[in-house]
Amino acid sequence: MENILITWIKNHSALNLSRVATQAGFSVSLLHGIMKNEKGLTVDKAFKLAKVLSHYGLELRGWRFLSTNQKDKLKCYSITNKINTAVFDAAEFMEFLDGKNL
Q1: Per-residue model confidence as pLDDT tens digits over 15-35
Q2: Which domains does the chain have, with CATH numbers?
Q3: Closest by alpha carbon to 59, among 82, 78, 74, 72?
Q4: What is the pTM of this model?
Q5: Sign of CA dihedral 84, 9, 16, 49
Q6: pLDDT per position as a tens digit, 58-90
């Protein structure tokens, strides 16, 4: 089963993958390898991608993600109930991608 973060990227074809890769701090070939499932999506890579994609309206499983001023945190809120919010570090975000929290 494909990672929901990768699916989100693929469903947003207007994204400039070269720019996303640069903003995330890794090479375009690495991002393409991740997209083709040739290279693994580690916790750190997924978190860096999410931080970048939060500027492009990243929404996963009914939650909208927002970048924070804290380098190691990512905030989200429920689309249906904006009172519900959460803040993730990299490991917690990976658990979210795996469906283990929220």
Answers
A1: 999 999 999 999 999 999 999
A2: 4-97 (1.10.260)
A3: 78
A4: 0.89
A5: positive
A6: 999 999 999 888 889 999 999 888 788 999 999
